[in-house]
Amino acid sequence: MRRIALSLFSGLVFSAVFGFLASATPQFKTAGGTERINVSSYPKDVQKDYKTFVDKCSECHGLTSSLKQSFSAAAWTEEVHRTQSMASSHVSDKEAKAILVFLNYDETHRKSRAKLPASEVPSKSIEAGQKFYYAQSCDACHTIGGQGGQGGPPLDDVAERRSRDQLLQRMLERRAGTMMPPLPTDTTDQQINDLVDFLLTLKGR
Amino acid sequence: MHSVRRGIKALIILIATSWPLVIFIPHQALAIPQFARRFRLNCYACHTIPPVLNEQGYMFKRLGHHLPPALEPSHAPEQVSQLVEKEPEWTLANNGSFAVADFNFSMQRSVQQGQSPSSTSGFQVNAWNAYFAGWIPNTNFFYYSELDIVVGGQTSPDMPNAHMGYVGGSAKSSWYAIVGREHLQVSEGTRAAEVYSLLPNSPLLFENFGPTNFVLDQSPVGAEVGYTWTSSRYKNILGVNVKVTNGDNPDGSEALTLGTSGRNGKDIWADVDWWYAPESGISFVTYQGRKTQFQNFGLSNQFSFYPHIRREGVFGNYMIRRDKVDLLAGYLHGNDNWEDPVTGAPGTYLSNGYFTEVDCYVRRGLALAGRYDRLKQDVTAGLSPTSLEQWQVGVEKAFTPSGNIVGRIAAGNMHGDDPVSLLRSSTRTIQADIQFNF
Fold first, then answer.
1. What is the ipTM of this complex?
2. Which domains does chain B have, with CATH numbers?
3. Tens digit of each residue's pLDDT (9 = 90 or more) over A24-38
4. By CB count within 10 A, which of B15, B42, B294, B420 is most buried?
């Protein structure tokens, strides 16, 4: 009986010491690659390419940096070729091509609009943009939360459908000659920025 | 209800009473977590499944613990000094791992001719190691030390690795020199020669407990030099290295610290490796040494002699379909001086070991393995050549996406005849273990 108690006691002591050391040791910060994105709205082929990207890239590292960093198509090509030249990369030319297709699609359809998250936009800018929105009577044609006119598309989820760059471009062009009335000619860049900041808060939630 | 209680009680008693049992498990390497931590990589960056190294892990080691860079045909290869400059900030967490442990449950049944069968089973802390290894900032020097706190269930602090090295050249053509204490066998060569495949180390391969009682599970003090050449994109890697060590005394102690056990020669270990992507390779290994050995150790008729000990082997693997199925095979020849334990008459001990294994990677972090080894032995004073055979099957699974917690279950059987006494014996083993690498 004494032997059993001694064994159990030594087991508990060891487990406690080991557990403490294990918990005190810094973990792998990006290991695991748990960061994933929802690609259900992407074309089927790109969804397959995304799977190749996840399978291959998460072998060695987490995907956080690849899913957050923004590069040009040329820079992504260089990066993937560089990865292919690493030891044990196991990325064939076909797989590299698939990874590049996904990265470039993701770059133009998701990352560009996420470049400036709403949380980083000063609330003053959003407030000013909201005032400008109503001052220009945008609500005459667009609805937000069911309030507004029906001449243009609802804007409840415009931040999900358009990137910041796309919205900026649209506002800067002021849509001369389209159905949307042009903004006043003395509209400043700051006002347009504020308006876009406000629109980017509309995520349909 | 009564039977459940009885089962639980039996399990508690089994675990509790088996705690102090010492079951011999050969020295095995675990993964070195601080390397992964340093570069924020998964274990799979350098291991197929820890602790089996892949090409990147092999190159990492040979570049003095620096991550091998991309080798593009159109770019000049980076110098090692450039790799040093790119290293992250030196921190204790990037250079040390203090909780690398292996918990093991083993059941063994041995049957020896002329004796009653015996069975043992037990749970034990099989290994608890701490590693301090990394690079000296802004220099080409690197260091590697391993403190074994628990080995085979016994708390016996030992430092089988404690060496320092210098690496020079470029990622394409590099060389290194190491001095200090270094384990003779751990993780040398290509995948097959590493011995540490997915199944536990087989005693038939290097750790021959045969008539000369000679094992390569030693950590003598010595010096090593090596050269590595790689082609673009690491499609081909050629590695050559030679170690000269002072050897161990016959009682297992370090030759430098104890000089009472007779003469000691120098041990020489040479290794030529060729890797070809993806992950296939072939290694030639040779060990030549001379040292005092005991015959009939611990008995009244104990005597010592001074044999030549020679091992030559070739090991290769072929990876089919990029990390799906790995075929491994090896051959190791032994030719030692030998003296008869009864008459002391000089003779020869010859051995031929054959080793085959198939590793099947079902998916990342899950692998199945089967292994068969055969050792043919012949001693001058023996009546006839004998053979030992061993098979093992097992499954290995990683429990975390990064691969730093790995579980393994294996079953095996070893049977054969002793080359001197010709007594037949067999041992069946079932073991399960789980490795934590923090």
1. 0.78
2. 2-437 (2.40.160.10)
3. 555 444 444 457 888
4. B42
